User: Fold these one by one.
Assistant:
Number 1:
Amino acid sequence: MSHIPKGVWGPKKAQLAWGFVFLIKYHKYMAKQRFYINTKGNDDNAYLEAIKKARELANSDIEIKKVILLIPNKRCTGWFERLFGQGVVKKLFIGHKFNNCNALFKFETVKTYQDNYTLSEIVIICGLNLKDILKIDDFYSVKSIIAIPWLENELEKWVKTWNPINLRSGLKATENYLEPSCIVKKAMENLTYSINMSTGISHPLDEERAKTFILALHKYEPSLNPNVIGAYLVRELSWSNRHAQDIEKLINTLNSGKYFKGGQRTGLKNYYKQWKKECKE
């Protein structure tokens, strides 16, 4: 296989790697449900609707032990004070059970909430920014997400990546990112096969490979959209949002006319030719 550029895998290795990716992808799709409410600002009814949905989900799934009301900080409880009163809000900081629901409802803040690595929680995201939403979406313990934005279009990237269900319409979001070109897909698939998925491109060799691939794509592809490629990595190749963002940053750097250190600067066309060949097979 000496004719294949370094970092581009042959069919046997690729088949084994795809089996691994499929298992991760299966978990990501089958284990996590995603919902959102298309709103902004102080929409108290949105939080009432989210709690109602969380109760339905918890009552239909014995694995669900807790519903997390994830707030920016301890002072951001106004929606719940207006809905339930200060007495219930105080209980929610400790843990409170609503009538006809076995799951415990509990406030957590962005700073206090941690992944417990047991698939047992629903998270109602209360007015968080996109960065925090993407972080929570990576948590293994989260089986369902119900996202309520504070700002209009705050959820756009997350919605276009996952097409979650709009609670008010009952329909999946229809606006999503277009798929990248076949050549970009092949490049990202080969990168996925060859790195440690648990650490992304943090290892120097993996970072070098990733930079080489991005340099080749940027040189020979008509254009590179970091959001499109990031969504593909997360949705189809089971990358974490955190690690996919490292690839997006590399693309953004080159798209802005800047440069980064590292990556091969010669032989880039060989990589591109190989990916193009794989697209024809």
Number 2:
Amino acid sequence: MLLLHDDWRGTPMDTQIVFVYCLCDDLLKALQHGEDRQCRVSDAEILTVALVAALYFGGHFQRANEFLHEQGYLSAAPARRESLQPAHPSLRPVRAALVSQVGRAGSSA
């Protein structure tokens, strides 16, 4: 069961989601990553969905995507899983490394 919007703001989960987004956004800026202007969701948001899926949803991207949209974290409506894949090929290794690191951190907790 998902927590209601007002019940979990300011909790460790909320803080971690915001931290993950900021980390992804800052990392992409540091790498001088260019966004595709046609995309409705930023690459930082896509990476955030991937990491939140790994942290809280057992790797289920669609569930994480729906949750983040319902709670107001994403700028656009939920997309199908295929569209959650970063369009820019240079982003794939960044996503894989971040998901791998989060998985390791989550298993040691």
Number 3:
Amino acid sequence: MTLKELVKGKKVRFRFYRDGELWYATNDGFEFPVPIADTGTGIFQAEDGAIQYMRWIRKHLETRAEGKKNGGSRHAIFRRLHRRNCFLITCRRFGAPSDCLHPPGARTK
């Protein structure tokens, strides 16, 4: 999905806070972090226009693309993200193989 498709006429919703990052999701289900250190004195609402979050959506798209380019299968990317926010992700949702950090379908915390 392109950046334009993710932001044009779309909304983002706050999902959770973890390790100094606010995690948001677009209407399409694309999740991305907003580092607290990068927010300054800004006001971040629970729901807002995606165009205002384009900066962080772009950064996350680039991070994901770089991960895929550097030997990142879908599962390798999942494992890197999994370390940071596994408490909200179910392994089964991502179709992770049996060597995942948690048993299939497990939900932690």
Number 4:
Amino acid sequence: MSDANSKDAIALRSRAMVHLKNSQFQLAIELFTAAIELEPEQGIAYLNRGTCKASLGDLQAALKDYDEAVRLSPENPDAFINRSSVRIATEDLHGAIADAEQEKREKSLGF
């Protein structure tokens, strides 16, 4: 990946965060998606896009993004917390408990 692509992806994620904080979830999703196309290995973009999708009620799509965020950034406890919340909402209690336990392990390791 070029430095220009990386800078563009950072700018897109920053703009997306403004929309997320203003509850403009669809606009944020579009910008996070564009950032992911430039930097597909950035777990934070999947995490935040998942948050937007969950806020719009698209829990299955949010779960897919959280799965990818966990895969790319297993040290990020927010990925486990958010995925656990969606799993509770979709009545996957075993999965929710597993995520909560993993989040606790990550925090105990100092992440």
